[in-house]
Structures are given as C-alpha cells and as structure tokens.
Amino acid sequence: MHIAIAGNIGSGKTTLTKMLAAHYGWTPKYESVDFNPYLSDFYEDMERWSFNLQIYFLNKRFKDVVDISRSEEVIIQDRTIYEDARIFAPNLHDMGLMTTRDFENYSDLFDLMMSLVGNPDLLIYLKSSIPNLISQIQKRGREYEKSIRIDYLTGLNEKYDNWIDSYEGNLLVIDADNIKFGNRPEDFEKVTNMIDAQLFGLFGNNTK
User: Fold this and answer.
1) pLDDT score at 14
2) Residue-range domain boundaries for the chain
3) H-helix or E-strand containing 126?
4) Residue 34: what pLDDT?
5) How far is CA 191 from CA 130, 177, 182, 194, 208, in A?
6) Of 110, 166, 175, 181, which is least packed with CB atoms within 10 Å of its CB?
7) 44-53, long-range: CB < 8 A, 24+ apart
8) pTM score, two decimals?
9) What is the pLDDT of residue 78?
C-alpha cells in the first residue's frame, strides 16, 4: 500500500510522515532535501537553477514511486511526484523563472513517467495558510530557506488548491492551521481517526 503526504513548504509533511510511520508501523520514504545538490543555489538564483532542480526532484521521485510499486510493505511518502509537475514547475514557469522550452520538455518527461505508474492508495493533503507556512519555515531555521519569496509561496498555495480540487483518487484533506498534530496528541488522534475511516471504514473513499 502507498500512502502519500502532499503540502506546501513548511506545512508539516515530514513531521506527519514520521509520526504516522511510528504509529502504524509503516515504512517512511522521505524527500531528498538535505543532500540536494541544487537547492541552495536555487534559492539564491531561481531562474538559473529552476530546471536543474525540478529534473533532480523528478528523477528522485520517479525512482521512489517505482520502488514503492515493487514493495510489499506499506510505504508512507513525504511529498509526491505530482507536486513537482502540477505545482512547482508550473509556478516557476508562471513566475518567469523557467523558460517555456524547459517547462514543455519537463512536462513531456513527466507525462511519460506517469504513464508507467498509478496514484497512491491514499493522498493526505496538508492545507495551510501563508502565515502558518512562514511561521513553520522560520521555526525550523534552514539557512537556504531564509530567502524564500512570499510570492513564490503564494503561487504554490494557489496551485495546490487547484490541483486538489481536481484530484481524482482517494483523498484526505487536513487543516494544518488548526489541527496541530505535531504538538497536540488529541489533534494527532483526530488525524489517525480520519485515516482509519478512510482506509479501513466501510465506505472509505474520496473525502474533501
């Protein structure tokens, strides 16, 4: 089984991945951030490094999806391959930080990859406001994230909402502004109750 967590930068994906892996005994698959050779350069000069960064992420994410499809374990994944192509790359293109030529090349490669894999069994989306994202980004204090632009985060959030509205698959949306699963045990229990209902309930399917 493949469980995936989606959400903007600072929404709490990694925290929830760790907590759910521990709670259910699932195997976590984390996003490659700390060892990404392009990320620091990207935040310093987005236009120069946008295509390189997105190709790096797409490559890593596709390998993850292929590995997950071959695994007999329950895998919980921190961020999905869809977010690269449906959120981050279009946002960079719309902001003029990725050329149309590079974006079309990237999109063709993504479409080819997605013809070979399917949706996760459950997608968990952490919906968060910009102020909450900024607060969380500041708290974790990653040096390379200090230069993130507000308009960049805002564009991402708009594209996340559009993507989720049209997503066709088993979906659970969590209000990350008000459900503080990382700090309040009762809120984490709310999350696990929702997941239990979605995965193991009699009528569990698409919930928005």
Assistant:
1) 92
2) 2-200
3) strand 122-127
4) 58
5) 22, 13, 11, 5, 14
6) 166
7) 44/147, 46/92, 46/95, 46/97, 46/152, 47/96, 47/97, 47/98, 50/92, 50/97, 50/98, 50/102, 51/98, 51/99, 51/102, 51/106
8) 0.84
9) 92
Q: What's the rounded Cα separation, in Å, for the pair 57 and 38?
A: 10
Flag residues of the chain having pLDDT under 50.
203-204, 206-208
In total, the chain counts a number of residues equal to: 208
Which distant-in-sequence residues (6+ apart) come within 8 Å of 16 by Cβ?
Answer: 5, 124, 126, 181, 182, 191
Phi, psi of 75 (to 5 degrees): -105, 135
Determine how many CB atoms are found less than 10 A away from the CB of residue 202: 5
Of 34, 41, 45, 78, which one is the catalytic site residue?
A: 78
Kindly report the CATH class assigned to 2-200: alpha beta
Which residues are within 8 A (CB) of 49 and not within 5 positions of it... i.e. 6 or more apart?
A: 38, 41, 42
Instruction: State the pLDDT at residue 208.
Output: 41
pLDDT of residue 19: 97
Give the per-residue pLDDT at 33: 55
- The verdict on whether 78 is a catalytic residue reads yes
Residue given tokens 């925290």 in the structure block: 15
* pLDDT at position 118: 84
Give the closest residue to 2 by CA, choosing from 58, 59, 66.
Answer: 66
